[in-house]
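Sorry to interrupt, but I need a hand with the structure work. Leave the record below and I will have a look:
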Amino acid sequence: MTTTVQELARNPVQPVTDAPMKRHQGYRRRERIYQWLFLVPAVAYLALFFGYPVVKNVLMSFQDYSTSTFYTGEAPWVGFANYATVISSSLFSTAMINTALFTAGSIAGQFILGLGLAVFFKRRFPLNGILRSLLLLPWLLPLIVSSAVWRWILDKDGGALNNFLESLGIISTGIPWLTSTSLALAAVMAVNIWIGIPFNVTVLYGGLQDIPDELYEAASLDGATGWKAFRHVTWPMLRPVVSVVLVLGVVYTLKVLDIILGLTNGGPANSTQTIATQSYALSFQNFKFGEGAAMGNILVLISLVFAVLYLRANRRAVDE
């Protein structure tokens, strides 16, 4: 007992202080400041190049915005008049139908062909990597270049496709792929499918690579091979990736503009006119910026509605 008292006298207990706690709080405060500093550039970029254009486009859709506005700096507020004008237009129903057909056909073609190629390239064979690299070329080419090349291929008189079909004796005269009101939309759709296949193959192939081989081995023991293995193993495991591919594909296809302008410019007789091309024509050909903004906002609203409905339906299916 005496020894313990003497030791305590020689080594008195240091009073407990909150210095470590203060240092910890200071460290966390500095860490939070650094996090915000890293976040500020991204937020500024989104606000400047995404937020401002969206807000400006919404405001323009409620104004009588024209070429004179650029000089006067004042655009009268017209409310929903621009929306009423574009919706009551004779071209609106045509553009809506063409947009629906173009989107549905493009997504179906891109996804089916992309999934088939992704499953094919999952197998190991010589030149697999080289062929997959070459498959990316349509995706890497500038769209205006792709449209120019395909415009030459599909030309009625000197197009490569018609010349090839004539040489085989399949046709006797050139087919007006881009100048026929019954064929133009299908031709543009086919070109868009060609452009979108690499994206589908790349994403779906990555999803297939993440499926463990052990699942296929276990399924084979139960007799699930070939189509059964795809149905009961591949498809359920690939469903989240499929959701991403379809949503991004629809959103991208709805706003396709340059391919249609490069091939047909919305013609012939508005047979390839979509909401995107109509919005462009109103804004930059007719210089009715308010009506063009209204049409663009309708396109954005359609994209948002589809994305929300599809994601909710897919989440409900996954939960079940």
User: Anything to note?
Assistant: The radius of gyration is 30 Å.
